[in-house]
Amino acid sequence: MDNFYDTDLAQVYDLMYPDLGQTELMGRYFNKVSSGNQIMELGIGTGRLAIPLSAAGFNVSGVDVSEPMLTKLKEKDHSSQIETNILDFSVDQLDNENNDICLLACNTFFSLQETEQQYETFLNARRTLSKEGVFVIEAFSPTWLLSKGQSFAEMRRLSAEKTLIEQYSIDQTTQLVQVDSVILSSRNGEAIVYTHKLRYVYPFEMDAIARSAGFELLERTSGFDGELYNAALPMTVSTYWRNS
What we know:
The chain is of the alpha/beta class. The protein folds into 2 domains: 7-141 and 201-242, Rossmann fold (3-Layer(aba) Sandwich); 143-198, N-terminal domain of TfIIb. The protein contains 7 helices and 11 strands. Strand 4, helix 5 (115-128) and strand 5 form a beta-alpha-beta unit. The protein is globular. GO terms for molecular function: methyltransferase activity.
């Protein structure tokens, strides 16, 4: 898995992905699909989800490939409740089998550009789950993304001083998405420039990989509020259970 979350991006990551009530919805959703409260988050990052989930009563641990992101998490985790490790979950083997929920959020699954990496991630999720555990994947809907066109740009304000501009280029043949981004600061004129590549998969493709790794689809929704799945909506939440 590529690691492009350096120190500069770690400092602004929470501005890029603010919590707009999502973790509260997540907590309710997790209580619906699981009777346990032990969560393993793959790609835990700065703890933007893990810290509020921990405060809500879940026992959260996680792994991430980016040391700067985990450093930011530790700065924010004042109670030191969240255990983390620097690991690449698409390569390094996880094996504890005591988690009720394995979470992979915010399009991180699509950061895995090879089918083998996606398969290994499902295997790792299986290894880290109890027999009744569930694997929850949050990602954008490919159908929704493609409705925007093969090339488009977006701009949004992250704060009073910072603005994010993103240029998307989509290759439907390879299902690759290149996102060229710049974060501009009006205070000092500095810019953070980076490129991120994703490879989306359609739900039927994700389900096939899941089955090959020993999972079955429990349900698919268009958000953690439980909205019925609609490919035209931005978000897809796919929840899988271990089939043995």
